Amino acid sequence: MKYPIQKWKRFRRRRKHKRKENGRKRRQIPRTVIPSFFTLMNLFCGFLAIISIAERRLFFGAWLIVFAGLFDALDGFMARLSNATSQFGIELDSISDVVSFGVAPGFLLYAFGLGEMPFVGIILSALTPLCGAVRLARYNVDAQESRGDYFKGLPIPGQAIMIAAFYLTFYNQLEMFSGLEYGLNTVLVPVIVLLAFLMVSTIPFDKMPSFDRESIKRNKVKLSLFIFYGILILLFQEVGLMIVFSAYIFKGIILGGISFWKEAFGEPEELPGDKR
After folding, report:
1. Mean pLDDT, the chain, whole residue set
2. What's the confidence (pLDDT) of residue 20?
3. CA neighbours within 13 Å on the CB side: how many for 184?
4. Can you tell me the distance from the alpha carbon of 37 to that of 136, in angstroms, rounded to the nearest whole number?
5. Domain ranges, ordered by start, for the chain
6. Alpha-carbon gap, residue 13 to 60, rounded angstroms
7. First-to-last CA distance in the chain?
8. What is the pLDDT of residue 4?
9. Are strands 204-206 and 150-152 parallel, antiparallel or unpaired?
10. Structure-derived torsion over alpha carbons of residues 217, 220, 223, 228, reported in degrees to the nearest 10
């Protein structure tokens, strides 16, 4: 005969043994979960942006594209911080970017002004997702070989936020374009073509440095510049976005032009053994 205290002890031993077995079977949460969450939030913002634009709430749609860009930056930061970069994350990020920074801004452009040109407007609006998809596919192929400090071509989030910033800055000041031959589209069309070309070009654009000790020491000036960009955006909001991304794009164009000039017209480097 067993007393109640003995039965209780036996029950506790069994329970403890089961806990140990369950603990062995329990798997750790993959590191990719955290950056993937921010990637999906980027996609969700892009989806909401498309809905907002379809309902003629372009202002909210433009800001949702900007927030998608914020989540895109956070997923990259979290992936580097947790050392959770993976092929799955790269592919998921590209799919999300096509929606948030390709389809959504293209739809915004069509609703903002390009819809006034029935066929041509559709083609011009499609440049954003089409060139963006090419840019992302090339990035995925070259991801292992690309230089750590620069992007090859304008990143698709950069052009999308530039489009959103253009709308947020000028949507209530359209009278500024009334004196031009085609109104707003006189300025909008060249901007779209330029951004599309920059995405598929090989012009180097600054990449935000990592926050590890070695990267901070090596990229003090660049990191300070990005912090300054962030302060401008916080202080001036949509105008700050316009100023910051215009400066970012023109800096890339100028440095790319200087690099091209040196390669095309600079003096060829003298190889060892060529001295006479």
Report:
1. 84
2. 58
3. 19
4. 20
5. 33-206
6. 59
7. 107
8. 53
9. antiparallel
10. 150
CATH 1.10.3210.10 fits 33-206, yes or no: no
Residue 93: the pLDDT is 92
For residue range 226-260, what is the model confidence (pLDDT) as tens digits?
Answer: 889 989 999 999 999 999 999 999 999 998 888 88
The most confident of the ranges 79-88, 105-114, 175-184, 212-221 is 105-114
Beta bridge partners of 206: 150
Question: What was the pLDDT predicted at 117?
Answer: 87
SS3 of the chain = CCCHHHHHHHHHHHHHHHHHHHHHHCCCCCCCHHHHHHHHHHHHHHHHHHHHHHCCCHHHHHHHHHHHHHHHHHHHHHHHHCCCCCHHHHHHHHHHHHHHHHHHHHHHHHHHCHHHCHHHHHHHHHHHHHHHHHHHHHHHHHCCCCCCCEEECCCHHHHHHHHHHHHHHHCCCHHHHCCCCCCCHHHHHHHHHHHHHHHHCCCEEECCCCCCHHHHHHCHHHHHHHHHHHHHHHHHHHHHHHHHHHHHHHHHHHHHHHHHHHHHHCCCCCCCCCCC
Q: Decide if pLDDT at 275 tops 50.
A: no
Mean pLDDT, residues 194-203 taken together: 94
